[in-house]
Amino acid sequence: MHEIVMQKHPSAHVSLSRNVQNDLLKDVCQRPNIEACGLLLGSSDEQGNWQIEQVYPMHNIYTSPVYFEFSPEELLDAELAHPGEIVGVYHSHPTGLATASSTDRENMQRVNCEEDIPWVWLIISGPFNDVFQHKQNIKSSVTAYHHYKKLGLRQITVQFTEKNVAVPAVDSEPIG
Ligand SMILES: [Zn+2]
Questions:
Q1: Which pLDDT tens digit goes with each residue over 12-56?
Q2: Is the pTM of this model over 0.85?
Q3: Protein residues within 5 Å, CB atom, of ion ligand 1
Q4: What span, in angstroms and rounded, lies between the C-alpha atoms of 77 and 84?
Q5: Host domain of residue 141
Q6: Is residue 7 part of a domain?
Q7: Can you tell me the distance from the alpha carbon of 34 to that of 92, in angstroms, rounded to the nearest whole number?
C-alpha cells in the first residue's frame, strides 16, 4: 500500500456552525467504539462551498469500529423528512485513522461522480477517550473531502464558525 498525497482544493470550504460542532462531538462520544455516522443538513452556494447547519445521526447497521453503512430505509426516511437539505455525510474513525480509508475513497468517488450526488464528507478521527471528551473540541479531529469529476479527490478546508443557525423549534405538521 502506498501513501496517497492529498491535494487541497484551492478554494472550496465547508463551514460548521457551533451547534454542528457540538452535535458531532456528542455523537462520536456517545458511541466511541464504533464508527458513528450520519447526515449533514444545510446548503451549498454557487461557489461550491457547503454550510452545515444540522447534524442528523444515523444508525451504523454494521456497528463496526472500522466500517459504516446506513440502512436504505433510514436514508429514505431522512430524504423524505429533509428534501434538498442533505448536503453531506459524516463518520468517525474510532481507531484514530486521520485520513479517508480506501473504502471511504471508493464511496466518495461512487457517490460524488457516478451517482452525481454533490455531498461533502467529514471524518472525525479518535480515539474518543477521556482526553478527547475532556477537550470538548473537535477542531483538530475533522477532515473533509469531496471527489470532483475533473480534479479527483480533494481535501476541503473546514471552517469553524461561532454562530448558530436558527433551527425551527417545532416541525410543522404535514398538510393533508
Ligand atoms: Zn472511514
A1: 999 999 999 999 999 999 999 999 999 999 999 999 999 999 999
A2: yes
A3: 101, 104
A4: 13
A5: 12-160
A6: no
A7: 8
